[in-house]
Specification:
The chain has about 130 residues and is α+β, with helices and mostly antiparallel strands. The chain contains two helices and six strands; from the N terminus they run βββαβαββ. Helix content is about 25%, strand content about 30%. α1 packs parallel to α2. Pfam families: Ribonuc_L-PSP. This is Reactive intermediate/imine deaminase.
Amino acid sequence: MPRTIIATDQAPAAIGPYSQAVRAGNTVYFSGQIPLDPSSGALVEGDISTQTRRVFDNLKAVAEAAGGSLAKVVRVGIYVTDLANFAAVNAVMSEYFQQPYPARSTIEVSGLPKAAQVEVDAVMVLD
């Protein structure tokens, strides 16, 4: 099955040896997004809600570059450095997704790149 690399300047460039997303067939696998500003590459400062909005804006840009939208996302993986932020992350996610919601896991981790508070990856299926 051929793979297509998805890249957009509307989301931050990869900070390592990976692609923003890869399409295989009608499935798109997103790399984790942290709250980086796409134009400067700098970490967005602010609380967990501010950082989470930036992450979902970045994912939205990659989804659109792949020919889809967040409505086509079937799975989300969320990584937070403090599970006390669970409710705040949920509140922001509900601004970007409507029912039926994608499957999801939320995992507390000891650290994320660039000292981000949140990272999100996803899987999207295109029609």
